[in-house]
Amino acid sequence: MRAKDAGFLLAFSTALLPWSAVALVRGGVSPELAAWFPLFFIFGVVPVIDALCGDDYRNWVTADEATQLEHRRYFRILTMLVLPLWLGTLTWCTWQFLHLPMGIGGRLGWVVSTGVIGGVLAINPAHELIHKPGRLEPLLGGILLTSVGYQGFKVEHVRGHHVHVATPLDSSSARLGESVYAFVPRALWLNVRNAWRLEATRLRGRGQSPWSAHNEMARWSLLWLVLLAASAAWGGWAAVGFFLAQGVIAAATLEVINYVEHYGLSRRELAPGRYERVTHRHSWNAPQRYTNWLLFNLQRHSDHHAQARRRYQALLHHPDSPQLPAGYASMFVLALLPPLWRRVMDHRALACRG
């Protein structure tokens, strides 16, 4: 196995962060402080490791190499194994929330830490799975998304975002000059609404009622209610609150990443309501090797939008794609500081639009 292939095992390391936080408590660190450790690692340590590991610009060269990569079962198994890992992590984090001696600050840190980990460990692999053919992988992706209460992403992302990306019709493409604090609430609301509308339109086109068992959104929402009821039966209202809150944070984490991935980019309008074809020039790209291992090559987002069915291990780095000045962890923090974000990103976005 090549070192590059083995590197994707690091995607599972995110699940170790809550365990590390509890280990710090057992080592004498205050629970109020230790609860924030996962966030410190993701947004403070990961950028440093990115700098130490350098960038990865390597691509497959021939069509045969691409075919071999696409068909290697190892890469597919990695993303599927995330489901039991995440469900176990979420259960364990809920237990710790209910029993660790934490005050308000510690509880807040634990909820936010778990939610951000959910955005990385649940939603990101789910994003890979829902794009794939067949039934098994989209099913596993849907369960992952439902575990954080963002099941509409399975429908809207594939049938909405990938169709309308980099146009005013897309609720997950941030406009030039738009603050992340305006974008995220808008994206969360519109993506859920659009998912229900897309599914209703699909069913009406097939002569079926939107209010039937054929409605995918209804089925995923029923599963979410089952998970919610299980949380209530296990840990009462505290567990219910934790389950709901971690889901909101995970979904918001995803939308901040969407903000970073598409900020200010646009496709030319060829006719009213008709836009040029999506290419690798309509998403931001980032080559940091370590973060791409952590996120199953999500930072090669430009190629993902150009070839949505291509598996993560075969995604290409395009040097002529819009390039972020740093990896996702750094850009996430920068996005939370709108004046600094605009100073860094606006002129880049304008150059790409030009």
UniProtKB/TrEMBL annotation:
GO BP terms: lipid metabolic process
InterPro entries from the UniProt entry: AlkB/XylM, FA_desaturase_dom
Annotated membrane topology: Multi-pass membrane protein
Presence of the UniProt keyword Transmembrane in the record: yes
TM spans (from-to): 33-53, 74-98, 104-123, 222-245, 324-341
Stretches assigned to the Fatty acid desaturase domain: 110-332
UniProt similarity note: Belongs to the fatty acid desaturase type 1 family. AlkB subfamily.
Protein name as it appears in the record: Alkane-1 monooxygenase
Upper taxonomic lineage: Bacteria, Pseudomonadati, Pseudomonadota, Gammaproteobacteria, Lysobacterales
